[in-house]
Amino acid sequence: IKCADWLIDLGPEGGDAGGRIVAEGPPAEVANIEDSHTGHFLKRYFTANRSPERQRRGSKQSKGGGRSTRKSSAKKKAATKSKSAKKKPRSSTKPTRKKAVAK
User: Is the whole-model pTM more than 0.85?
Assistant: First the structure.
């Protein structure tokens, strides 16, 4: 959300208490709107008084991009089953024999 070009925040709550535009604009502007739950969430990403340790911890990115490369055993079994395709039965017609050539 913080990397979006433009936000439209509907609310302030869900259901009958929602459906109105509470905030609209770039994420940095929405972060300053007190009535917006989204703005309240974004505020911590746009405030300058974050501690250096928190900034360091928050800016680290894992080499894998946060995605797990491990597959569960169920997925492995399913993948193994899908790879082994059944052979198609041969046609019921008999192959023709080669005729012997007289020398």
Answer: no
